[in-house]
Automatic annotation (TrEMBL):
GO terms for cellular component: plasma membrane. It is a multi-pass membrane protein. Residues 4-379 form the Major facilitator superfamily (MFS) profile domain. This is MFS transporter. One of its GO terms (molecular function) is transmembrane transporter activity. The chain crosses the membrane at residues 41-61, 73-93, 99-121, 128-150, 156-178, 199-224, 236-254, 266-283, 289-309, 330-349, 355-377. It is found in: Cell membrane. The keyword Transmembrane applies. The keyword Transmembrane helix applies. It comes from the Bacteria. InterPro entries: MFS (IPR011701), MFS_dom (IPR020846), MFS_Efflux_Transporters (IPR050189), MFS_trans_sf (IPR036259). Residues 391-405 have a biased composition (Low complexity).
Length: 412
């Protein structure tokens, strides 16, 4: 494993920790600033929206510098945002710090995916992407529970200072270990935008929104579902989330391993299984042991889709993958926000907390349908000439392949 992947994973660990740790610290933050918990929830919503908007924005701003330098700038932005949050004297300023930190999120994972894939042989790309995302999944097992513990005992401000310290470590790792990768010659913003004319790129992003949205339709409301339906004590939610995180780690690694072999069949299996498990969660949520197993499976199946979906976007937009890769990271967060909203609607309608699982099952099932459509289009498309980049854009191998004044990218 290239050491550069470790540096990327450390950065991902810090980003994953700051994204999710706030959920365990909302009561403390709300109490200090004198706001309600729903108002404090804007710290979660604001971060998610910042990721969606920041992914394309920061990637576009970084098209004129090398990917390594952009990764370093993004980690610096992440550190600054967390320091602002930690020292903020008002709720508004803390929210500003959260948004600043979130702007680095999508672009870091998007550009990092491209860098990780470029560090290894072509048949190992998904595994390399999964290794970087391991930092995000491990954050849910170690970083979030530990950060919550620190915040509840030493103060939430200390948690954000620790996270900022993780960002400094990640920045140093990127600077020392990630090889210099010059900005690809001939690539301009119009070339990056051209990827979005490829219907397969758009279908992959639709799978991302719907599939990962299915996961968060259930997980967003896991606390009331487990305490009021399954009968767990409030203190048990922490270890239930650890189980979810362990499932994420295992699913992410397995997804990375098998996506390099049979990407689309893997998506059919994981999305279909996720839809079934989420539907069954409406029943298993009433039984403690069954609920614990189901939560682990949701984490595993949900994150088993991450490496193949990210690789799918990279493959289909290979002539200019950076912006498409970053936007796909934003699509994960868009799915989170959409699912949480839809789940909240059915719960508010009086259907009960487990009704959110039906929403998740429907979203995952819809993602499977999109995957089947995408696979059918693959079978009906020649293996060469599927993506035609603008004149002057590099072919996947790095050098343009002239074909009648245009550049034709070939795909595996």
């Amino acid at each position: 494993m290239p050491l550069a992947l470790l540096a990327l994973a450390i950065g991902a660990f810090g980003i994953g920790t700051t994204e999710f740790v706030i959920m365990g610290l909302l009561p403390e933050v709300a109490a200090e600033f004198g706001v309600t918990i729903p108002t404090a929830g804007f710290l979660v919503t604001g971060y998610a929206l910042g990721v969606v908007l920041g992914a394309p924005l920061m990637t576009v701003l970084g098209t004129r510098i090398s990917r390594k330098r952009m990764l370093m700038l993004l980690m610096g932005l992440f550190v600054a945002g967390n320091v602002i949050s930690a020292l903020a004297p008002t709720f508004g300023l803390m929210l500003t710090g959260r948004v600043i930190a979130s702007l680095a999120h999508g672009a870091f994972f998007g550009i990092g995916s491209v860098v990780a894939a470029g560090l290894v042989a072509p048949h190992k790309k998904a595994g390399a992407i999964a290794m970087m995302f391991t930092g995000l999944t491990v954050a849910n097992v170690v970083g979030v529970p530990l950060g919550t513990f620190i915040g509840q005992n030493a103060g939430w401000r200390v948690t954000f200072l620790v996270v900022a310290g993780l960002g400094v470590v990640g920045l140093a790792g990127v600077a020392a270990l990630v090889p210099e990768q010059p900005r690809p010659r001939g690539v301009r913003l119009r070339h990056e935008l051209a990827a979005f004319r490829n219907v397969q790129v758009l279908l992959a992003m639709a799978m991302t929104v719907l599939g990962f949205g299915g996961v968060f339709a259930a997980i967003t409301y896991i606390t009331p579902m487990m305490t009021r339906t399954a009968g767990f004590a409030d203190s048990s939610v922490t270890w239930l989330l650890v189980l979810f995180g362990l499932g994420m780690v295992g699913g992410n690694l397995l997804g990375g391993k098998f996506a390099d072999r049979r990407l689309m069949p893997l998506l059919y299996v994981t999305l279909g299984s996720l839809a079934v498990v989420l539907a069954l969660f409406t029943l298993t949520a009433h039984h403690k042991a069954a609920a614990a197993v189901t939560i682990t499976l949701i984490g595993a199946l949900g994150f088993a889709t991450v490496p193949p979906l990210q690789k799918r976007v990279l493959d289909q937009a290979s002539a200019a993958p950076t912006l498409a890769s970053a936007v796909n990271i934003g699509a994960f967060n868009l799915g989170n926000a959409l699912a949480a909203w839809l789940g909240g609607l059915v719960i508010a309608g009086g259907s009960g907390y487990t009704a959110a699982n039906w929403v998740g099952a429907a979203l995952a099932g819809s993602a499977l349908v999109v995957a089947l459509v995408s696979g059918a289009l693959d079978r009906g498309t020649p293996r060469t000439g599927r993506v035609v980049a603008a004149k002057g854009a590099p072919a996947p191998g790095g050098a343009p392949e002239a074909t009648g004044g245009r550049v034709t990218a070939t795909h595996p």
